[in-house]
Design goal:
Layout lengths: L1 H22 L4 H5 L3 E14 L5 E2 L2 E5 L8 E5 L7 E3 L2 E13 L2 E12 L1 E3 L3 H9 L4 E8 L1 E16 L3 E15 L2 E7 L12 E6 L4 E15 L4 E12 L3 H5 L5 E4 L14 H4 L6 E2 L2 E3 L2 E14 L38
Antiparallel strand pairs: 1-6, 1-19, 2-18, 3-4, 5-8, 6-7, 7-10, 9-12, 10-11, 11-14, 12-13, 13-16, 14-15, 15-19, 16-17
Amino acid sequence: MKKITFIFSFVILGFFTMLWAQDAPTGKAATQGYFKFQVRLKVGLGQTFTALPMNFQNDTIQYAGDTVGYAYKKSFTGLKDDVLKTQWGLYGGGNFDFYFHPNFGFGLDADYFSNALKFVTPSPLNEYLSVNPNVTMTESDRKNQSLIFVGIGPSFKLFTNEHWDVDLNIRGGLSHLNMGRLMVSMNNLPKLYENQTRDSILYYDYSKSMNVFGAKIGLYGNYWFNSFIGITAGVDFIHSFVTASKINGDDAYVFKYKDPQNFLYSNGTLNQSYFLRYYSLDSYHPSTIDVNHFSASIGVVFRVMPSASKGKSKDIIVLVKDSLTSIPVEDVDVSLRDRNRS
């Protein structure tokens, strides 16, 4: 419902802004200089490239001793593999551009992304599942990543002719970011030790929304059917400036994971006895975060270009000739009227 409301709001905003622009030609900008208003409404697919914390601080794991007093200790330098990815998802947006020069103007952009999280199974765990077909994995407690970006900045016409033009938008503004939530568990595990088998693998919860500065660049090609409406296709790239300290300093952001890489035999296979023990999940803390969104979209584009002549007075020169001799006649009163009016 939120997605539909968001996109519908842009359609309404674009419609009423165009009505305003059509009433604006009597203003100073329309009568004394160049002016054009352009609206682009678009939908497509978006992806969050490197939108998850993947570089983690160095740390040491020490697992408590079992019934025979054995302690398992291992140092690590963060996760070796990206265990979380995002899938391509819904993208929608709008560009509202005001041009006071044929090749330059400014505008407002608004964009929305929604992307589902996906757990990437490490190879040792994949091998374990292949030889234990009764054991399955379940993803639950899911919340998609989402981004709402609103920004302003310059707009450029890189190329234009009667039917084609190419737009470049550069924007800076606010990124309202939610990085999602996901839990991964294993089902039908063997009970190696009574009440000592842990079935959870991953608990990720970065669903607390944050507001950070964002920067965007967009490139679009337009084909115009007439002076008012056309179709458009383009790409957008948005970078949100999220710092690791913003997340590490807040207990609401949780990244806990039981890394199979820390429970391997010397031959690289999974040590089932220790991986399935009750040892708690390890907490990971990112050292850097890059949040980048990319989209490809199609849509419709509208423009309003007020008539340069509207509201201006004109000088009309009339030459009157005698109908028989074709000699110009002086001091003649001439009356002009619109033939379409009575």
